[in-house]
Design brief:
alpha+beta, seven-stranded antiparallel beta sheet, six-stranded antiparallel barrel, 8 helices, 32% strand, extended
């Protein structure tokens, strides 16, 4: 037994010595490479060749869509006040700042003809608009039309060989899907950030009249407004428009206008020069226990109508104050933004069914909406 253990130990010693010698002089035999110092080195994984996309990379989606995302520079001439040339006014109040105001934003090329979607607040009241393409080409842009109620605007540039983004299908988007936000934050240049869809159908935020936002945690900062929110295939899913922030920078809560809304606004402005929406002439309110008690209704959900415009479409269709609207054209409504959106989608002049609850019971009214009046422009 003693001789056996002695033989075993000697064999192990010889094998270890042989391994050390081979590993030092012929590391290739052991799947290793010697470093320049002659010591052992771990075998390196070869880098992927050109054109090979690493697993989990969004490279292809970013390359496909970023070409059609542009930067937008705006300038607004200084507005001289009524006393701008009054020497006594200058004596008491000094020279007023007459420097032009400049702004930054982003946009998305949606047509080979040069149509660009962006936010209304990016180009609002701008006297000059310059578009800078991803390939560094520059062009003056013309405002074709704006829609303040959705905060969208359509621009047009005259350049050839324009890249065009592919419009996606927002109805296929689900919470948890990965998305990319592309734009020009703070004017540093085109930037791509990634995140997921955090929520769908966000409304009652007080940002726009018509709200149906995609919420995402992809970083969106000032300058990203009007840029693209795309899926992992590089298809447009939304127009980035706002963030929730206490610091002015991204806090992981950003909002984008769905591509379905953007497409509707684009088609309306290009075809008719404006967006045509339905309107019935009512004053809607959220259904609260206090209002339900005031009007004597027993409905548990819906939108209560507290005012009806005389001779308006709703009045002509038989709607009365105290009616609770629970559905429009077969689709349920739970709050005021949903009712506004549902009515706006109706074709003016074509009657649609409104599901109503009254103290006397449920009924259905056929109401032909009119054309929604344009919002009043704020005084300059």
């Amino acid at each position: 037994m003693k001789r056996f253990w002695l033989l075993f130990s000697q064999s192990v010693t010889v094998l270890l010595a042989a391994y050390f010698v081979v590993g030092t002089l012929k590391p290739g035999w052991l799947g290793q490479r010697a470093s320049s110092s002659g010591t052992l080195a771990v075998l390196e994984v070869p880098a992927p060749g050109p054109g090979v996309v690493p697993p989990g990379s969004f490279r292809q989606a970013a390359q496909k869509s970023s070409l059609a995302v542009v930067s937008i520079n705006t300038s607004k001439n200084a507005r001289q006040g009524p006393h701008g040339n009054d020497p006594w006014f200058k004596f008491f109040f000094g020279e007023q700042n007459n420097e032009p105001q400049v702004g930054l934003g982003s946009g998305v090329i949606v047509s080979a003809d040069g149509y660009i979607l962006t936010n209304n607040h990016v180009v609002e009241s701008a006297d000059e608009i310059e578009v800078i393409l991803n390939d560094s080409r520059r062009a003056r842009a013309k405002v074709i039309g704006t829609d303040p109620e959705s905060d969208l605007a359509v621009l047009k540039i005259s350049l050839d060989r324009l890249p065009v983004i592919v419009l996606g299908n927002a109805s296929n988007l689900q919470v948890g899907d990965q998305v990319l936000a592309i734009g020009n934050p703070f004017g540093v240049g085109q930037t791509v950030t990634s995140g997921i869809v955090s929520a769908l159908g966000r409304n009652q935020l007080g940002i726009n009249t018509f709200e149906n936002f995609i919420q995402t945690d992809a970083a969106i900062n000032p300058g990203n407004s009007g840029g693209a929110l795309v899926d992992t295939n590089g298809n447009l899913q939304g127009i980035n428009t706002a963030i929730y922030s206490r610091s002015g920078g991204s806090m992981g809560i950003g909002f984008a206008i769905p591509v379905s809304t953007a497409k509707m606004v684009l088609e309306g402005i290009v075809k008719d020069g404006q967006v045509t929406r339905g309107w019935i002439g009512v004053e809607p309110n959220e259904l609260t226990p206090e209002l339900a008690q005031t009007f004597g209704v027993c409905a548990q959900q819906g939108v209560i109508i507290t005012g009806v415009l005389q001779n308006g479409p709703a009045a002509k269709g038989g709607m009365k104050p105290g009616d609770v609207v629970t559905g429009v054209a077969g689709k349920g409504v739970l709050n005021v933004p949903e009712l506004l959106t549902a009515v706006a989608a109706l074709k003016p002049g074509t009657a649609a069914a409104f599901d109503i609850e009254r103290p006397t019971g449920k009924t259905s009214l056929q109401i032909a909406p009119g054309v929604r009046p344009k919002p009043r422009q704020p005084a300059q």
